[in-house]
Amino acid sequence: MCHGATPDFNAKRTITVEKYGHSVTKNIDEFWKSEKLQVKNYTKDDYNKEITKNIKIFEVLKEDERDRVQSVGPFYAEMFFLRNANSSGYDIMKKVAARKRKKLLEHFSGIKIYRDNFKVRPYGDEGALYDWLGLGVRAQKSPAAPSHLHGRWRVEPYQMIGWVKIGRETNPELEDMANREGIALTDAYYIFVNMLQEAVNEFEYDRQYIYREYAKWIVSIEKELADFAERVKEEARKRTYKLQNGKREDEAHNEYHEEKEQFTEDELFGTVQQLVDEAESDLQSKQMLQILSSSGIILNTFFHEFNAINTQFHIQAPQIRSRVNYILQGKEYTGLPVYNPYTRIDILEKNDRLTAAFLDVVMEGLKKESLIKKEISLHEEIINILGKWQLMLEDKHITIRTGIFEERKTSDNVKMSIVDLYIILNNFLLNSAWFLEQEHNPQREIWLELYNQGEDICLLMENNGPTLAEKYKDNPDKIFEMGETSKDNDGTGLGLWVVKETVERNNGIVEVLERSEGFGLKIIFKGMVKEYVSNRNN
After folding, report:
1. Ranges in the chain annotated CATH 3.30.565.10
2. Contact between 85 and 98 (Cβ < 8 Å)
3. Omega within 30 of 0 (cis) for the link into 157
4. pTM (2 decimals)?
5. CA 416 remoteness from chain centre
6. pLDDT, tens digit (0-9, with 9 covering 90-100), for 51-80
7. Beta pairing partners, 113
8. Which residue, among 56, 333, 51, 413, has the nearest Cα to 203 in the 3D structure?
9. Alpha-carbon distance 304 to 297, whole Å?
10. Cβ atoms within 10 Å, residue 200
11. In angstroms, what CA-CA distances link 273 with 218, 250, 263, 278, 285?
């Protein structure tokens, strides 16, 4: 797979961004200095050359397909992407010559298949098998633009041309149907298609990476020029308050504007659009999470009942033990070992403690006060959450190292909801527990570190389980994409995506730590120290 600056990127040195009559000119080198564009294969120099990515097929196929991949045999494919002629994209992208694109498509279309250099019809031709790779279905399921910050962009079938070369001797399982109207739909054929789709998937991620970073850069500049959202919301709050206290609408409006400047129509409607876009993005995130939330809804519905049960878990076994002691009048049990009640009570007590710990972790996030954004001490809340997890992790012989939480020289207070901290830690601890169980390691450990970095607060979360899967080594950020998982059929691919969404919602960034052993994440909460000091002084 390759990408390059020559065919897709302009050589502009500056770019001008306008917002509500304000404008600013930025040097394009500022964009290339972005932290996300300093990783291998994504630097400015990398976009001027061809890159190669080696994908281990056993890491991308499902477990039940791995034993049959050899049946496909070796093949060769070349596929090329054609950007839309009517898509202006961003200023950094070159314009597409519509005439040249149309002329190219007159001679080439779709992805063709050649067996021993003879064309296999009707693959890639107009008709039912024009899109035999199923690119259209993939695009319909995920219609996000390349610049979308959360959704996955998918290439359309009319944007791809190319060919795949197979042979009768090298690929005997890719045989013709009895009627000679195509390749038989065998297991080997579907694995063959899956491997080609995975190559397309790598290209899609590679292309969207640069679009996303550019879009985020432009948005950050626009916000510097005109970030009216908080001011508009503040005005709305004040007007609502005055109306609720008996003020007429015109009176409240005039009274407010004696103190504040009035927004222009462009500023007001632009801000409304910004708030709508933010609301839509939040809605999409919530909808995806709600797909897997049925168990949470049940728990929430029966919150009080489960809470009462949780209380019983702490006293149930001791009460049974005291009753048995009363029946035996303080004497030791002398009957058959199989009927020894104390053995069963010990097991019951252990199970009760685990169940209670599980309910403590799950139900904390369902409390209304946990949803409120307020000033909290990261140190204190993390210790509290780890305490709830301790019993469950001990049952899996996992040790949490908390000795690094020493007395802080500067504040570790942040303004966020406790439930967000639960989301971050719960997902990391769940992932750690799963992967640590895959390793035959007698010392399973999870450790955390909290420290200040200038005005930022950093949280390191690490474990000594397996390292990052090989397929993510080139660009570890891919593990934060929705649906990405290396757990075969056990994973949903939502855990780390949820972590990233939560961290970014709290003005933070999350990145994968480079480690030769184990796995770790670094979370940076931007400007929290300065924000805390400022709020405290006010």
Report:
1. 294-537
2. yes
3. no
4. 0.61
5. 20
6. 888 887 777 777 777 777 888 999 999 999
7. 120, 164
8. 51
9. 13
10. 20
11. 16, 25, 15, 9, 18
